[in-house]
Design brief:
The complex is a heterodimer of chains A (225) and B (191). Chain A is of the alpha+beta class. Helix content of chain A is 40%, strand content 32%. Chain A has seven helices and six strands. In chain A, strands 1, 2, 3, 4, 5 and 6 form a six-stranded antiparallel β-sheet that branches. By secondary structure, chain B is mostly helical. Chain B has a single domain, classed as LemA-like domain (de novo design (two linked rop proteins), Up-down Bundle), CATH 1.20.1440.20. Helix content of chain B is 76%, strand content 0%. Chain B has helices at 2-59, 66-81, 86-108, 111-115, 117-152, 156-163. Chains A and B meet through β3, β4, α4 and α7 of A and α5 of B.
């Protein structure tokens, strides 16, 4: 009996310490992101006051629960953008035995002067290649290197080819440091692994460079509505 | 004996099903190439519509360059004349492109023309049209590649030959004008 009690106390103590560590780490992250916003002249909101999580991006419909937090907003190298943390969880198990697996990202969102059809650029893996062979393919462009590395989902073939010209494809092959890029309407969303706030500006710079690679024909063919 | 008959029947049914699937895929891809060729045609028509304005604008400043204007006009008429196969059309579009490039080179020699709003607007529109032609061309060629690959590989090759599906030609043209220029950055505050 005493042994069981001691065991419970030890487990609780470990749990409490782990919780405190997580709390401290979270507070440090909030402070760091706030300081970053101040340094670069962006505004900072700890919560998702603009309802970014309700935007029509595929990544925001994953999982059983999700949240956007620590949002900084401003203009980076002339491009209006927001950067934020995003997580979602998958829940498994029955009543009384629920298990949550969290997936954490840092994202950057920019606005462009176009009304683009929905496009998602991700990476090929074993399952997607199998799907290609079964005819569940993505948009195949003319560079095999690009097709082997990336998966392009877009219902509008013309938009995919307009956005992903030779220069853009070359650049993406050399700047492959993201999980996915999604374009929908006037928004471009870059999704990457969760980053230390000191590296958030790298994300902003990447999105800025992507913005500048967008071919002029996209703006003329898909003008703002 | 019964087992052999059953297996044979399954094999025959499977072969028929596969044939149907391949045939439908060939039809789908062939229609895709035709549709994307129509898109190229629409963009080429934009180019044809622009050229007379371009010629008359340059003529206003360089009326003595008659030979250049006549060449462009003749090449345009030739390109528009009769619907052709993509590879033959590409040859005529390349010739038209060279003559328009020559026209632009003539325009470069006249600073007043280069600075005129009308010429600059036409130049931007021409660059945009060339970009659209290149997009349409890339889509057409990608669809042709998928279709030709299927027509030429086994077992679709068998179905294609039995049904009269043949390879389609690619369409290769160089743009007359490269780069319409960077788009303006929108700082309207739509964050």
């Amino acid at each position: 009996m005493l042994l069981a009690l001691a065991f419970v106390v030890i487990v609780a103590a470990f749990g409490g310490v782990a919780y405190l560590f997580r709390l401290k780490a979270r507070q440090a992250r909030v402070r760091a992101v706030g300081a970053l916003a101040l340094r670069v002249g962006f505004t900072f909101a700890a919560a998702d006051v603009d309802h970014i999580v309700d935007m029509p991006f595929a990544v925001f419909s994953k999982g059983d629960g999700r949240r956007v937090e620590l949002v900084i907003s401003g203009v980076h190298d002339g491009v209006p953008m927001r950067m934020f943390d995003y997580w979602y969880y998958d829940e498994s198990g029955g009543q009384g035995n629920r298990n949550r697996t969290y997936h954490r990202f840092t994202c950057a969102l920019a606005t462009i002067s176009a009304a683009c059809p929905r496009l998602r650029l991700g990476h090929e893996d074993f399952l997607t290649r199998l799907g290609d062979h079964l005819g569940l393919g993505d948009v195949e462009l003319e560079y095999d290197d690009f097709n082997r590395r990336f998966r392009v989902k877009c219902d509008d073939q013309k938009f995919a080819f307009s956005l992903l010209d030779g220069k853009m494809m070359q650049w993406l092959l050399g700047a492959d440091r993201f999980d996915s890029v999604e374009v929908d309407g006037p928004w471009v969303l870059l999704v990457g692994p969760k980053l230390d706030p000191a590296r958030w500006l790298d994300l902003g710079s990447w999105l800025d460079q992507f913005y500048r690679q967008i071919p002029p024909v996209v703006y003329s063919t898909y003008p703002p509505r | 004996m019964t087992a052999i008959v059953v297996v044979a029947a399954i094999v025959v049914v499977a072969a028929i099903a596969v044939t149907f699937v391949i045939y439908n895929r060939l039809v789908h891809l062939r229609n895709l190439t035709r549709e994307s060729w129509r898109d190229i045609d629409a963009e080429l028509q934009r180019r044809y519509d622009l050229i007379p304005n371009l010629v008359s604008t340059v003529k206003g400043y360089a009326a003595h360059e008659r030979e250049t204007f006549e060449t462009v006009t003749a090449q345009r008429a030739d390109a528009m004349a009769v619907p052709r196969e993509p590879d033959e059309q590409a040859t005529r579009e390349q010739a038209l492109g060279r003559s328009v490039a020559q026209l632009m080179a003539v325009a470069e020699r006249y600073p007043e023309l280069r600075a005129s709003e009308q010429f600059l607007a036409l130049q931007r529109e021409l660059a945009d049209t060339e970009d659209r032609i290149q997009v349409a061309r890339r889509i057409y060629n990608a669809n042709v590649r998928s279709y030709d690959t299927l027509v030429q590989t086994f077992p679709a090759l068998v179905v294609a030959r039995m049904s009269g599906f043949t390879v389609r030609p690619y369409f290769e043209v160089d743009p007359i004008v490269r780069d319409a220029g960077p788009p303006p950055v929108d700082l309207s505050g739509r964050t």
